[in-house]
Amino acid sequence: MNKYETKWYKTEGEMLDRLYKDRADGWQKLYDAYDLKFDKRIRDLRSEDVVKVSRFYPIVRQILGSIAHNYPVQSFAVEDEVNQGVAEILERASASWMNLCNLKSHVHQAIFDALFTGTGWVRLDYNPVGDDIIAPYVTNDDMAEDIVVASRVAPHCVHVDPTGSPHRLGDKRYIREKFWVPLKFLLDDPTIQNKKSIKPCGSGRDDIPCRC
Questions:
Q1: pLDDT for 207
Q2: Residues 18, 20, 25, 27: what is their CA dihedral angle, to the nearest 10 degrees?
Q3: What is the DSSP secondary structure assignment for residue 83, as one 8-state letter?
Q4: What's the pLDDT at 136?
Q5: Cβ neighbours of residue 71 under 8 Å, at least 6 residues apart?
Q6: What is the pLDDT at residue 209?
Q7: Which of 102, 111, 133, 144 gets the highest tally of CB atoms within 10 A of its CB?
Q8: Which residues of the chain have pLDDT under 50?
Q9: How confident is the model at residue 210, as a pLDDT?
Q10: Measuring CA to CA, which residue among 129, 123, 124, 122 is closest to residue 148?
């Protein structure tokens, strides 16, 4: 990128940080309510004497237990009458891949995210054989080698262009994902300048929603 593009994306990034910080605060309040963490107090009653009952918790369980129980599923339609049996073979192969990459658990978590944040994100990656992977991505024992894998992404880490249509990702000028990387990757990257100013930080900071 040239200097103009670098400055423009830096300005957009600062705007997205402020925008999604406010959104993440609102999402965290919903997570706290789901966990029965209420700030309201009842007069003349101690906090341990108050019985808290969640109305949202059973609804979430019902949604995940009914709508999401048998999903995701891929169906194929073969229009060629000669190869009608191919659709069943493709569906079996698709089901086998979903089982290998544990896609169901990622989709269930994405549905849970959508109930609180309005959007659930599942990213497709490629996990190569052995440790031969391109930084900043790292290998994961949960992923099968030499196969396309799926992984759920925390909603507060995905920032989309706010000027595009809310229901069409194709209208967005960009989509930004924030994620944690090993410090060594940054220090070894020849394209990064001012490496002395890079400081390590943990993923358990207070500004990160706990359930995300």
A1: 46
A2: 170
A3: G
A4: 63
A5: 104, 107
A6: 40
A7: 111
A8: 205-212
A9: 36
A10: 124
